[in-house]
Amino acid sequence: MVYRLVEFELSKPPPVIDLAPEENGIGLIGRWHDQLIGFEMIAAAPGSTLSAGELRMLADQRFAPRVLIAMVEAELTPSSLGHTFLPSLSIAICTKDRAERLSRLLRSLEAVCDNSPFGPVEIVVVDNASTDSATRKAVESFSDVRYVFEPKAGLDFARNAALHAATGALIAYLDDDVVVDRNWLTGLAKACGDNPGAGGFTGLVLPYRLDTEAQIYFERRGGFGRGFYRNEFRGSRFDNPLHPVGSGVLGAGCNMAFERTLLIELGGFDEALDTGAPLPGGGDLDIFYRVLRSGRTMVYEPQFAVYHEHRETVAQLRRQYWSWGLGMMAFLVKSRRSDRELRSRHGAMVRWWFVDQVRTLVRAASGLRGRDVRFGLNELWGGICGLAGEYDRSRSRIEAIRELNR
Amino acid sequence: MTAPSLPVRHLDLSAMRADTHPGDAPAFSIFWWKELPLGMRASLPEELPFSEAQLRQLTAEYGAAQLAARRPALGAPLRATHEGRPKQALALSHLLAEHNLVEELDMLATAPTPPTTQISAVICTRDRGEALAGCLRSMTMQRSAPGEIVVVDNSSDGNARPVCERFPEVRHVHEPRPGLSIARNTGIRASRGEIIAFTDDDVELHPGWTVEIGRAFADQSIDALTGLVLPARLDTPAQRIFQLDKGGFGSTFIPLRFDNRFFAETRPHGAHVWKMGAGANMAFRRSLFERVGLFDERLGAGAAGCSEDSELWYRMLADGGVCLYEPRAVVFHHHRRDLVGLRAQIRSYMKGHVAALIVQHDAFHDRGNLVRIFGQLPLYFLKSFLKGLLEGRRGQPGTLAPEIAGYAAGLQFLFRPGWRREHAPRLVANGVDA
Asked: Cβ-count burial of B90 within 10 angstroms (0-12 exposed, 13-18 middle, 19+ buried)?
């Protein structure tokens, strides 16, 4: 199973797409004058041809309303906005034993950083206890990339190391399994210029490739997608009494940026979350939540986009869903304890989450969708493990790591 | 969320760069582009004021929706689908030719000057002098006066007369037989205009109301019109529950044509005519009443409950008529302030709804109406009950009990053969009963 990723510039005539015999669909990325407008997955017979007419019809249905909004917005945007003064920026990449992917990401960054709208831009790679020197060598092959070694294994150890090693007023975090879109930096600049005073930014995450069943399945189930509408989040919402406890709607940790001094004031990332195995999640939820609770705004900007390499195999994907449940509950247990003011919302979120998981499971089971049931069970089981003391276990584990490296 | 009060505010996005709300209280914001209503949303203090970027984005989203629905070059007008929602007909090839969209939006928002002398405005009232005075004041402040203003006084002792005498252009008609449908029919017979526009005594009109009605009926294919009913105030819990939990009188800001397609699509489960609008803001061509008859006097406040408006729309659609929902025709409704009154209203809505379904079934032998009564409604009650259990809304007064009570009360009409044999009165061309 392979879906080819195709870009379609909607202001030009649609391409004709001849699928190879092993390809049975496309992931269509719609742009309007280079601005990202939408993403659609379209199944097709292997080796078939998608005519210009078919694509045109599809684009009319799925992309045209969003294009019209973009057109009106462009007319409303004062042209002076592009010239606002932007602060210095640090781009932080935390990586462990993935030199090849890191090089791929650094190459994509090289292309976008050339004429940056920001003040000085630095790239900091935090090597999170890699077992060999490949990561360092990869960094050395690029000019102007700083290398920092963090011996304590754990993503949030690395993120905090980056936080203190960086010098920019703004810090943008990227995971090593993404590459950035060509408008990634201008997207972030737009979000910064538009939202003076925002504490953080999140962005769109599209698939990097859809070459395996697991990757296609993951993206179909929603992936990391948070849509193509800009969104602004503050500490409460009229339409969602549980907000900001369900902070997953803000975005994903593989593509986020913050005012650096704010993160330092907040005490950085919680190192007991996002530790890698056995608790590989929850750190992003936690930091989004704490930024909102500090009274600052967070902005989701779809033009601030990356492409994420999804898990390749079904086994890895199963583990990912399990870790989502685990991380979510570890985060909830922690914030329920540390943020007493919103305790009832945390409790209600736990209840809502389990009811929602069970409801999804029942729906999958009654539709005889075996795979959905299995993944659903994984996520549910992760949630149960997370609720059953995983956060405390993780805290004692990282304490041991800290001891070891003292 | 039981905030003390939810102040309603109006924001003209065409003239605004920054939101000046101090962010110390919640707000219910209604957005406009000059005279064109765009949308509404409720916000907590922390969500306010809206940032400049947020306002720009809201303008873009709302403005694009208006352009897509109103510009013929973009595929408009839109016909209602069974959801009572628009089905977009945009094509990229149309968009390529578009520029100066903000100017287009300005044009859409520019008030026209169609004739309004053919409009008879009819207000039915009963024992609500103060509210009526407010309504009449807004009526006399119309940018273009209607041909006549008729107040049908449905009180037993004609107590609206002194209020009407304060407004020289208002004609007072006393109809002592109680019932909103009876009062409306009296208003139709007493009025002379080709277009009869109804509003209620608990409503204030936007100054462009008559103008928009005149503009809509300039299209000869339109038999009826409904408009947007916005909340005037949201001060009490009852008013907030009605607007936010029960959906108020609808929330679509996109014009829609309700025609035979909508009727055919929804008929299998009891044509969803209640999605077409509200009696507080509706108008008809007089010729429609000649074709399909007057309001059914078994229905409506004072009789079975309500739905006398939607039952008439049902007859109109069955006859091939077309109703335009035009949100540019705006009224502001004063929702009930007290919870007891709200529960009574919800109960009578449901009772009237069931009664209207029975009436429609008897007149057209449409099984869809029974599907609605015995399938959809019980299922809706069950879902609401489960949702309530799950969300565990403590301290929130329930509205499900009065709905079920109203449903049960409505079912009684099934067993009243005499009641079921009656039908709506007819209107003959000279205005005398047949």
From this structure: buried
CA max distance for chain A:
65
CB contact under 8 A, B60 and A72: yes
Using H for helix, E for strand and C for coil, what is the string for B156-170?
A: CCCCCHHHHHCCCCE
**Cβ atoms of A351 and A404 closer than 8 Å:** no
Select the residue of B42, B47, B53 nearest A234 (Cβ to Cβ).
B47
Tokens of residue A181, six digits? 């879109």
Contact B48/B55 with Cβ under 8 angstroms? Answer: no
Residues 6+ apart with CB under 8 A from B362: B420
Angstrom CA distances, B338 to A217, B28, B237, stand at 52, 19, 8
Q: Measure the CA–CA gap between B408 and B369, rounded to whole angstroms.
A: 16
H helix or E strand, kind and range, residue B28: strand B27-33
Q: Spell out the alpha helix ranges (H) of B267-399.
A: 286-292, 308-318, 339-364, 367-371, 377-391
Report the topology of domain B119-339.
Answer: Spore Coat Polysaccharide Biosynthesis Protein SpsA; Chain A (3.90.550)
Q: State the best of A60, A72, A243 to mutate against chain B, taking most chain B CBs within 10 Å.
A: A72
Q: Mean pLDDT in chain A? A: 93
- Among A36, A18, A28, CA closest to A227: A36
User: Is residue A121 within a helix (H) or strand (E), and if so which, with residue range?
Assistant: strand A121-128
Question: B41 with B21: CB under 8 angstroms?
Answer: no
Element at B27 (helix H, strand E): strand B27-33
Per residue in B22-68, pLDDT tens?
999 999 999 999 999 999 999 999 999 999 999 999 999 999 999 99
Closest CA to B7 of B229, B234, B179: B234
Residue with tokens 């800009």: A230
